[in-house]
Amino acid sequence: MPSLARRGRGATLNPPVRYDARTTAAFDDGWQTLETGFADLPPLPTTLTRDASRSVISYNTSPDIGFDRAVNPYRGCEHGCIYCYARPTHAYLGYSPGLDFETKLIYKPDVAELLERELRKPGYVPRVLALGSNTDPYQPVERTLKLTRGVLDVLDRFNHPVSIVTKSAGVLRDLDILGHMASRGLARVYLSVTTLDPVLARRMEPRAASPARRLAAISELTRAGVPVGVLAAPMIPGLNDAELERILEAASRAGARHAGYVLLRLPHELRQMFEAWLMEHFPDRARHVLNLVRETRAGGLNDARFHHRFTGSGVYADLLLRRFTRAARQWGLEETREGLVTEAFRVPGPPKAGLAEAQLSLL
């Protein structure tokens, strides 16, 4: 199968949806039709489809995750990170986890209104809500759609705590809201920094902010009084894991107060896609990287067991954990993460209604 690599896109494949009963496969009939058909592929545009969801808070009971609820204004992510563990979720929508994931985006235009409706339900008990648990809330389309800003506006009015994870310096656009919330103990932000090498970053995550811009965002958030952490995630054995200590040092110097890391995860189609991406961009070390991944995943390319999927197992994984622990201590990033305030949650007055709705309410 020829590569489907496009400029500005991460995946080099568009594997079939695993739930489809029938799939198609490219076939060379001996007349070089594949080579001709896949030559000079045009750029892939980003398309947007409205999401008709009637609720927006998703809950989880995973023992590996430090939050039990999240909101994701978008499904799919234009950043195009080849390693993204969320790619396989696009199959639930009938799309490929490959190029479809980063070009066919589903957005929730009513996410703020639906969130407010759920927060107003009697008996709702507030806990820290995560933004960016599945796809980045500040991916490029957020510049115009501003759905994440709408969510933050609702959380601010309800005094509801929020934790954000992003690879984008676009989070600085909402510094006014985040600063106001942070002053009341209601907000914190984590910047994901996978590498300090801009060339490697462009290959792994083609439409995310450069490493330098992410570090600058940490500095600006810190100056505004917003608690900031860094996530060295994912660490890919043999590719970017040698940078772990340097990433933590740079983030600490920028003002980060906490740190975390996650070992590369390759669920479902991601195994095939990551292997193809390695052969495309790093053919000289592809086999070595994959062998190291297998060392940390009990001989396979993925281990979905709780308490193992984020950190892996084996000698190599243990060494990575010890390196992280030492570097976090050295650079002052092992400070106990402060809890966000939940006691201040309150339901404000009813949302403003139009004239017609106000008149109907009198009947």
Under CATH, the topology is which? TIM Barrel
One letter per element, helices H and strands E, the order comes to HEEEEHEHEHHEHEHHEHEHHHH
| Low-confidence region ranges | 354-363
Q: How many individual helices?
A: 13
Helix-strand makeup class? alpha/beta
Q: How would you describe the shape?
A: globular
Spell out the CATH superfamily.
Answer: Aldolase class I
Q: Return Rg in Å.
A: 22 Å
Strand order of the largest sheet: 2-3-6-7-8-9-10
CATH C-level class: Alpha Beta
Strand content: 5-15%
* Measured distance between first and last alpha carbons: 66 Å
Question: What CATH architecture label applies?
Answer: Alpha-Beta Barrel
Main β-sheet: number of strands, strand sense, barrel status?
A: 7 strands, mixed
Number of domains: 1
Q: What do the pLDDT scores average to?
A: 91
Strand segment tally? 10
State the helicity in percent bands: 25-40%
Short account of what is shown:
The protein has 13 helices and 10 strands.
Topology:
Layout: H1 33-37, E1 47-50, E2 57-59, E3 69-71, E4 74-75, H2 99-103, E5 104-107, H3 111-119, E6 129-131, H4 142-145, H5 147-158, E7 162-166, H6 175-182, E8 187-192, H7 198-204, H8 211-223, E9 228-235, H9 244-254, E10 258-263, H10 270-281, H11 286-296, H12 315-330, H13 355-361
Helix pairs in contact: 3-5, 5-6, 9-12
